[in-house]
Amino acid sequence: MKALGLNWQIGSNYGWGTYGMELALHLFRRGGPRTVLLQGAADFRTDELQFARLDYMVRSSAKAVAGDRQWFDLYRPGNGLVVAHALGNNAEPAFAPNRVAVAADREVALTFIENTACSEAARRRFASFPLVVAGSDWCRDMLAGLGAANPVSCIQGIDPSVFHPAPRRGDFRDRFVIFSGGKLEYRKGQDIVLAAVRAFRSRHPEALLVTVWGNVWKQSRGIAQFRHSPHVAGPPPVSPEKGIDWLSWMRELGVALNDITMFGFFTHDRLPLLMREADVALFPNRAEGGTNLVAMEAMACGVPTILSANTGHLDIIADGACIPLRSQRPVAADEPGLGTEGWGESDVDEIVEALERVWQDREAARAIGAAGAAHMARFTWAAQLDKLMGLIEGQA
Protein backbone atom coordinates (compact mmCIF):
# COMPACT_ATOMS: atom_id res chain seq x y z
CA MET A 1 0.00 0.00 0.00
CA LYS A 2 1.63 3.22 -1.21
CA ALA A 3 -1.22 5.69 -0.94
CA LEU A 4 -4.51 6.17 0.89
CA GLY A 5 -7.25 8.13 -0.81
CA LEU A 6 -9.76 9.86 1.47
CA ASN A 7 -13.03 10.19 -0.38
CA TRP A 8 -14.53 12.91 1.82
CA GLN A 9 -13.77 16.56 2.47
CA ILE A 10 -11.54 17.40 5.37
CA GLY A 11 -12.40 20.43 7.53
CA SER A 12 -12.32 21.72 11.06
CA ASN A 13 -15.93 22.42 12.08
CA TYR A 14 -17.56 19.00 11.71
CA GLY A 15 -16.75 15.46 12.81
CA TRP A 16 -15.87 13.85 9.50
CA GLY A 17 -13.71 16.84 8.63
CA THR A 18 -11.72 16.56 11.85
CA TYR A 19 -11.32 12.82 11.33
CA GLY A 20 -9.88 13.39 7.87
CA MET A 21 -7.54 16.15 9.03
CA GLU A 22 -6.19 14.03 11.86
CA LEU A 23 -5.72 11.01 9.61
CA ALA A 24 -3.92 13.01 6.91
CA LEU A 25 -1.60 14.67 9.44
CA HIS A 26 -0.90 11.37 11.18
CA LEU A 27 0.16 9.70 7.93
CA PHE A 28 2.41 12.68 7.16
CA ARG A 29 4.09 12.43 10.58
CA ARG A 30 4.69 8.71 10.35
CA GLY A 31 6.05 8.94 6.83
CA GLY A 32 3.33 7.28 4.79
CA PRO A 33 1.47 5.96 3.04
CA ARG A 34 0.92 9.07 0.97
CA THR A 35 -2.44 10.75 1.34
CA VAL A 36 -4.56 11.91 -1.58
CA LEU A 37 -7.59 14.01 -0.68
CA LEU A 38 -10.04 12.98 -3.38
CA GLN A 39 -12.67 15.53 -2.30
CA GLY A 40 -10.32 18.34 -1.32
CA ALA A 41 -11.17 20.39 1.74
CA ALA A 42 -13.84 22.57 3.22
CA ASP A 43 -12.73 25.35 5.55
CA PHE A 44 -10.02 24.18 7.94
CA ARG A 45 -8.49 26.18 10.76
CA THR A 46 -5.42 25.08 12.60
CA ASP A 47 -1.98 26.37 13.48
CA GLU A 48 0.33 27.61 10.75
CA LEU A 49 2.51 24.49 10.59
CA GLN A 50 -0.41 22.07 10.25
CA PHE A 51 -2.16 24.44 7.84
CA ALA A 52 0.90 24.45 5.56
CA ARG A 53 1.02 20.65 5.53
CA LEU A 54 -2.70 20.28 4.86
CA ASP A 55 -2.66 22.98 2.21
CA TYR A 56 0.15 21.14 0.41
CA MET A 57 -1.89 17.92 0.51
CA VAL A 58 -4.96 19.69 -0.86
CA ARG A 59 -3.03 21.25 -3.74
CA SER A 60 -1.08 18.12 -4.66
CA SER A 61 -4.21 15.98 -4.42
CA ALA A 62 -6.03 18.33 -6.79
CA LYS A 63 -3.25 17.79 -9.31
CA ALA A 64 -3.48 14.02 -8.89
CA VAL A 65 -7.23 13.98 -9.39
CA ALA A 66 -6.88 16.25 -12.43
CA GLY A 67 -4.47 13.75 -14.02
CA ASP A 68 -1.14 15.53 -13.57
CA ARG A 69 1.35 12.79 -14.53
CA GLN A 70 3.85 13.69 -11.80
CA TRP A 71 1.22 12.85 -9.21
CA PHE A 72 -1.28 10.63 -10.95
CA ASP A 73 1.22 7.90 -11.80
CA LEU A 74 1.29 7.07 -8.11
CA TYR A 75 -2.36 6.08 -8.33
CA ARG A 76 -2.48 3.82 -11.38
CA PRO A 77 -4.01 0.34 -11.10
CA GLY A 78 -1.70 -2.05 -9.29
CA ASN A 79 0.38 0.75 -7.84
CA GLY A 80 -0.87 0.51 -4.27
CA LEU A 81 -3.81 2.89 -3.88
CA VAL A 82 -6.47 2.10 -1.27
CA VAL A 83 -9.52 4.37 -1.16
CA ALA A 84 -11.42 4.93 2.09
CA HIS A 85 -15.04 6.04 1.74
CA ALA A 86 -16.96 7.89 4.45
CA LEU A 87 -20.46 6.46 4.77
CA GLY A 88 -23.27 7.79 6.92
CA ASN A 89 -26.83 6.68 7.59
CA ASN A 90 -28.31 4.40 4.90
CA ALA A 91 -24.79 4.02 3.43
CA GLU A 92 -24.95 7.54 2.00
CA PRO A 93 -21.56 9.04 1.07
CA ALA A 94 -20.60 11.73 3.56
CA PHE A 95 -19.07 15.03 2.44
CA ALA A 96 -18.30 13.72 -1.04
CA PRO A 97 -19.89 16.24 -3.44
CA ASN A 98 -17.73 15.30 -6.43
CA ARG A 99 -17.65 12.08 -8.44
CA VAL A 100 -13.99 11.09 -8.64
CA ALA A 101 -12.86 8.14 -10.75
CA VAL A 102 -9.62 6.54 -9.62
CA ALA A 103 -8.39 3.01 -10.12
CA ALA A 104 -8.08 1.76 -6.56
CA ASP A 105 -6.51 -1.58 -5.74
CA ARG A 106 -8.86 -1.84 -2.77
CA GLU A 107 -11.78 0.11 -1.33
CA VAL A 108 -12.84 0.19 2.31
CA ALA A 109 -15.62 1.96 4.19
CA LEU A 110 -15.44 4.03 7.36
CA THR A 111 -18.81 4.67 8.91
CA PHE A 112 -20.67 6.36 11.77
CA ILE A 113 -24.39 5.64 11.67
CA GLU A 114 -27.17 6.20 14.20
CA ASN A 115 -30.29 5.54 12.15
CA THR A 116 -31.12 1.84 12.42
CA ALA A 117 -33.49 1.99 9.43
CA CYS A 118 -31.68 0.89 6.28
CA SER A 119 -32.80 0.23 2.70
CA GLU A 120 -31.97 -2.93 0.80
CA ALA A 121 -29.73 -0.93 -1.53
CA ALA A 122 -27.82 0.39 1.48
CA ARG A 123 -27.45 -3.11 2.89
CA ARG A 124 -25.96 -4.25 -0.40
CA ARG A 125 -23.56 -1.31 -0.41
CA PHE A 126 -22.33 -2.09 3.12
CA ALA A 127 -21.95 -5.75 2.12
CA SER A 128 -19.92 -4.82 -0.99
CA PHE A 129 -16.86 -3.67 0.98
CA PRO A 130 -14.22 -6.17 2.09
CA LEU A 131 -13.75 -4.08 5.23
CA VAL A 132 -16.17 -1.75 7.05
CA VAL A 133 -14.73 0.14 10.02
CA ALA A 134 -17.35 1.42 12.46
CA GLY A 135 -16.85 4.25 14.93
CA SER A 136 -18.10 2.26 17.93
CA ASP A 137 -18.89 -1.28 19.02
CA TRP A 138 -22.62 -0.50 18.92
CA CYS A 139 -22.29 0.74 15.33
CA ARG A 140 -20.24 -2.36 14.41
CA ASP A 141 -22.90 -4.68 15.81
CA MET A 142 -25.63 -2.80 13.97
CA LEU A 143 -23.68 -3.09 10.69
CA ALA A 144 -23.30 -6.83 11.21
CA GLY A 145 -27.08 -7.06 11.49
CA LEU A 146 -27.43 -5.05 8.28
CA GLY A 147 -25.27 -7.50 6.35
CA ALA A 148 -21.84 -5.88 6.31
CA ALA A 149 -19.38 -8.65 5.45
CA ASN A 150 -16.55 -7.78 7.81
CA PRO A 151 -17.45 -4.99 10.23
CA VAL A 152 -14.88 -4.03 12.85
CA SER A 153 -14.73 -1.12 15.27
CA CYS A 154 -12.06 1.51 15.78
CA ILE A 155 -12.96 4.55 17.84
CA GLN A 156 -11.71 8.08 17.31
CA GLY A 157 -8.92 9.70 19.31
CA ILE A 158 -7.96 12.87 21.12
CA ASP A 159 -4.92 15.10 20.68
CA PRO A 160 -3.24 15.12 24.12
CA SER A 161 -1.05 18.08 23.14
CA VAL A 162 -4.24 20.17 22.99
CA PHE A 163 -6.82 18.37 25.15
CA HIS A 164 -5.29 17.80 28.59
CA PRO A 165 -5.76 19.01 32.17
CA ALA A 166 -4.40 22.51 32.81
CA PRO A 167 -5.17 25.50 35.06
CA ARG A 168 -8.31 27.53 34.45
CA ARG A 169 -8.22 31.16 33.47
CA GLY A 170 -11.17 31.95 35.77
CA ASP A 171 -13.41 33.52 33.14
CA PHE A 172 -16.70 32.80 34.96
CA ARG A 173 -15.74 33.72 38.53
CA ASP A 174 -18.34 32.44 41.02
CA ARG A 175 -20.57 30.56 38.57
CA PHE A 176 -21.03 26.78 38.58
CA VAL A 177 -20.31 26.08 34.91
CA ILE A 178 -21.96 23.25 32.99
CA PHE A 179 -20.47 22.63 29.53
CA SER A 180 -22.46 21.12 26.68
CA GLY A 181 -21.12 20.62 23.16
CA GLY A 182 -22.22 19.08 19.88
CA LYS A 183 -24.14 20.24 16.83
CA LEU A 184 -27.76 21.06 17.48
CA GLU A 185 -29.94 18.05 16.68
CA TYR A 186 -32.44 15.80 18.41
CA ARG A 187 -30.15 12.80 18.88
CA LYS A 188 -27.59 15.02 20.66
CA GLY A 189 -30.18 15.78 23.35
CA GLN A 190 -29.86 19.54 23.81
CA ASP A 191 -33.51 19.60 24.87
CA ILE A 192 -32.65 17.19 27.71
CA VAL A 193 -29.74 19.43 28.72
CA LEU A 194 -32.01 22.46 28.91
CA ALA A 195 -34.67 20.62 30.93
CA ALA A 196 -32.08 19.33 33.40
CA VAL A 197 -30.25 22.65 33.79
CA ARG A 198 -33.52 24.51 34.27
CA ALA A 199 -34.41 22.12 37.11
CA PHE A 200 -30.92 22.29 38.61
CA ARG A 201 -30.94 26.09 38.57
CA SER A 202 -34.03 26.07 40.78
CA ARG A 203 -31.69 24.71 43.46
CA HIS A 204 -28.54 26.55 42.43
CA PRO A 205 -29.16 29.86 40.65
CA GLU A 206 -25.40 30.40 40.24
CA ALA A 207 -25.36 27.60 37.64
CA LEU A 208 -24.36 28.72 34.14
CA LEU A 209 -24.78 26.61 31.01
CA VAL A 210 -22.01 27.16 28.45
CA THR A 211 -22.79 25.68 25.04
CA VAL A 212 -21.16 25.10 21.67
CA TRP A 213 -24.17 23.97 19.65
CA GLY A 214 -23.56 25.33 16.17
CA ASN A 215 -25.05 23.49 13.20
CA VAL A 216 -24.28 24.84 9.73
CA TRP A 217 -27.03 22.60 8.29
CA LYS A 218 -29.89 24.71 9.63
CA GLN A 219 -32.57 22.91 7.63
CA SER A 220 -31.33 19.50 8.69
CA ARG A 221 -33.59 16.62 9.55
CA GLY A 222 -31.86 16.38 12.93
CA ILE A 223 -33.06 19.84 13.98
CA ALA A 224 -36.60 19.18 12.75
CA GLN A 225 -36.71 16.01 14.87
CA PHE A 226 -37.02 18.08 18.06
CA ARG A 227 -40.75 17.77 17.35
CA HIS A 228 -40.42 14.32 18.99
CA SER A 229 -39.04 15.79 22.22
CA PRO A 230 -40.93 15.39 25.49
CA HIS A 231 -39.21 18.53 26.81
CA VAL A 232 -39.80 21.20 24.16
CA ALA A 233 -42.76 22.14 21.98
CA GLY A 234 -40.71 21.73 18.83
CA PRO A 235 -37.52 22.77 17.07
CA PRO A 236 -36.19 26.32 17.32
CA PRO A 237 -37.42 28.72 14.64
CA VAL A 238 -35.04 28.78 11.67
CA SER A 239 -34.97 31.23 8.79
CA PRO A 240 -32.63 31.44 5.78
CA GLU A 241 -31.86 35.06 6.61
CA LYS A 242 -31.28 34.92 10.38
CA GLY A 243 -30.51 31.26 10.93
CA ILE A 244 -31.48 29.67 14.23
CA ASP A 245 -33.58 31.94 16.46
CA TRP A 246 -31.95 30.97 19.75
CA LEU A 247 -33.52 33.77 21.77
CA SER A 248 -37.08 32.74 20.94
CA TRP A 249 -36.32 29.10 21.75
CA MET A 250 -34.71 30.03 25.08
CA ARG A 251 -37.64 32.25 26.06
CA GLU A 252 -40.09 29.47 25.18
CA LEU A 253 -38.13 27.10 27.43
CA GLY A 254 -38.01 29.57 30.30
CA VAL A 255 -34.23 29.98 30.09
CA ALA A 256 -33.03 33.50 30.89
CA LEU A 257 -30.07 35.04 29.10
CA ASN A 258 -28.20 35.11 32.41
CA ASP A 259 -28.56 31.31 32.58
CA ILE A 260 -26.59 30.54 29.43
CA THR A 261 -23.53 31.58 27.43
CA MET A 262 -23.84 30.32 23.86
CA PHE A 263 -21.30 29.85 21.09
CA GLY A 264 -22.19 28.64 17.64
CA PHE A 265 -18.68 27.43 16.93
CA PHE A 266 -15.36 27.53 18.73
CA THR A 267 -11.96 27.14 17.06
CA HIS A 268 -11.05 23.52 17.70
CA ASP A 269 -7.55 24.04 19.11
CA ARG A 270 -8.92 26.72 21.48
CA LEU A 271 -11.86 24.66 22.64
CA PRO A 272 -10.00 23.23 25.66
CA LEU A 273 -9.61 26.77 27.02
CA LEU A 274 -13.40 26.90 27.24
CA MET A 275 -13.86 23.31 28.42
CA ARG A 276 -11.46 23.70 31.33
CA GLU A 277 -13.55 26.57 32.70
CA ALA A 278 -16.35 24.08 33.34
CA ASP A 279 -17.11 22.38 36.65
CA VAL A 280 -18.87 19.58 34.79
CA ALA A 281 -19.65 18.50 31.21
CA LEU A 282 -23.05 17.07 30.29
CA PHE A 283 -23.82 14.74 27.36
CA PRO A 284 -27.27 13.06 27.63
CA ASN A 285 -27.11 12.13 23.95
CA ARG A 286 -29.78 9.80 22.61
CA ALA A 287 -27.50 8.14 20.06
CA GLU A 288 -23.90 8.22 18.90
CA GLY A 289 -22.63 6.10 16.02
CA GLY A 290 -19.15 6.96 17.20
CA THR A 291 -18.03 7.66 20.73
CA ASN A 292 -18.83 11.41 20.73
CA LEU A 293 -15.54 13.19 20.10
CA VAL A 294 -16.53 16.30 22.08
CA ALA A 295 -17.22 14.16 25.15
CA MET A 296 -13.84 12.44 24.76
CA GLU A 297 -12.13 15.82 24.55
CA ALA A 298 -13.93 17.13 27.65
CA MET A 299 -12.84 14.05 29.58
CA ALA A 300 -9.28 14.45 28.27
CA CYS A 301 -9.26 17.99 29.70
CA GLY A 302 -10.03 16.56 33.15
CA VAL A 303 -13.60 17.87 33.29
CA PRO A 304 -15.94 15.59 35.30
CA THR A 305 -18.25 14.31 32.58
CA ILE A 306 -21.83 13.02 32.73
CA LEU A 307 -22.59 10.56 29.90
CA SER A 308 -25.72 8.75 28.79
CA ALA A 309 -24.99 5.02 28.94
CA ASN A 310 -26.11 4.14 25.43
CA THR A 311 -24.82 3.44 21.92
CA GLY A 312 -21.28 4.71 21.23
CA HIS A 313 -20.89 6.30 24.67
CA LEU A 314 -20.56 2.79 26.10
CA ASP A 315 -17.07 2.52 24.58
CA ILE A 316 -15.69 5.38 26.68
CA ILE A 317 -17.55 4.81 29.95
CA ALA A 318 -15.26 3.35 32.63
CA ASP A 319 -15.64 2.94 36.39
CA GLY A 320 -14.69 6.12 38.20
CA ALA A 321 -13.75 7.95 34.98
CA CYS A 322 -17.13 9.59 34.35
CA ILE A 323 -20.67 9.71 35.72
CA PRO A 324 -22.88 7.41 33.62
CA LEU A 325 -26.61 7.92 33.26
CA ARG A 326 -27.84 4.34 33.64
CA SER A 327 -31.56 5.02 33.28
CA GLN A 328 -32.12 4.79 29.53
CA ARG A 329 -35.64 4.47 28.19
CA PRO A 330 -36.39 3.50 24.57
CA VAL A 331 -36.74 6.43 22.18
CA ALA A 332 -39.91 6.31 20.12
CA ALA A 333 -40.15 8.54 17.05
CA ASP A 334 -43.03 8.07 14.63
CA GLU A 335 -41.17 9.16 11.53
CA PRO A 336 -40.80 7.21 8.29
CA GLY A 337 -37.22 6.20 7.66
CA LEU A 338 -36.01 6.88 11.21
CA GLY A 339 -34.96 3.84 13.22
CA THR A 340 -34.16 4.38 16.89
CA GLU A 341 -33.46 0.84 18.07
CA GLY A 342 -30.82 1.00 20.81
CA TRP A 343 -31.18 4.75 21.38
CA GLY A 344 -31.61 5.94 24.95
CA GLU A 345 -33.74 8.64 26.60
CA SER A 346 -31.98 9.89 29.73
CA ASP A 347 -33.90 10.69 32.90
CA VAL A 348 -33.89 14.38 33.86
CA ASP A 349 -34.06 13.61 37.59
CA GLU A 350 -30.99 11.38 37.33
CA ILE A 351 -29.13 14.17 35.53
CA VAL A 352 -30.07 16.69 38.22
CA GLU A 353 -28.82 14.33 40.91
CA ALA A 354 -25.56 13.82 38.98
CA LEU A 355 -25.09 17.58 38.76
CA GLU A 356 -25.89 17.83 42.47
CA ARG A 357 -23.23 15.20 43.20
CA VAL A 358 -20.61 17.31 41.46
CA TRP A 359 -21.82 20.50 43.14
CA GLN A 360 -21.79 18.94 46.62
CA ASP A 361 -18.36 17.25 46.47
CA ARG A 362 -15.90 19.15 44.27
CA GLU A 363 -12.93 17.09 45.47
CA ALA A 364 -14.57 13.82 44.44
CA ALA A 365 -15.57 15.40 41.15
CA ARG A 366 -11.98 16.44 40.48
CA ALA A 367 -10.92 12.84 41.09
CA ILE A 368 -13.45 11.69 38.49
CA GLY A 369 -12.10 14.29 36.07
CA ALA A 370 -8.52 13.15 36.65
CA ALA A 371 -9.51 9.53 36.12
CA GLY A 372 -11.33 10.50 32.94
CA ALA A 373 -8.23 12.26 31.60
CA ALA A 374 -6.11 9.20 32.39
CA HIS A 375 -8.66 6.98 30.65
CA MET A 376 -8.66 9.16 27.53
CA ALA A 377 -4.85 9.11 27.42
CA ARG A 378 -5.21 5.56 26.08
CA PHE A 379 -7.12 6.85 23.06
CA THR A 380 -4.79 9.30 21.36
CA TRP A 381 -5.21 9.96 17.66
CA ALA A 382 -1.78 8.41 17.08
CA ALA A 383 -2.78 5.15 18.78
CA GLN A 384 -6.23 4.94 17.23
CA LEU A 385 -5.11 5.84 13.71
CA ASP A 386 -2.28 3.32 13.88
CA LYS A 387 -4.95 0.76 14.76
CA LEU A 388 -7.08 1.95 11.83
CA MET A 389 -4.16 1.68 9.42
CA GLY A 390 -3.40 -1.80 10.71
CA LEU A 391 -6.96 -2.80 9.88
CA ILE A 392 -6.81 -1.23 6.43
CA GLU A 393 -3.42 -2.74 5.64
CA GLY A 394 -4.63 -6.14 6.79
CA GLN A 395 -2.13 -6.38 9.65
CA ALA A 396 -4.65 -6.60 12.50
TrEMBL record:
Stored Pfam families: Glycos_transf_1 (PF00534)
UniProt superkingdom: Bacteria
Domain Glycosyl transferase family span(s) in chain numbering: 174-336
InterPro entries associated with the record: Glyco_trans_1 (IPR001296)
GO MF term set: glycosyltransferase activity
Protein name (database record): Glycosyl transferase family 1 domain-containing protein
Species of origin: Thalassobaculum fulvum
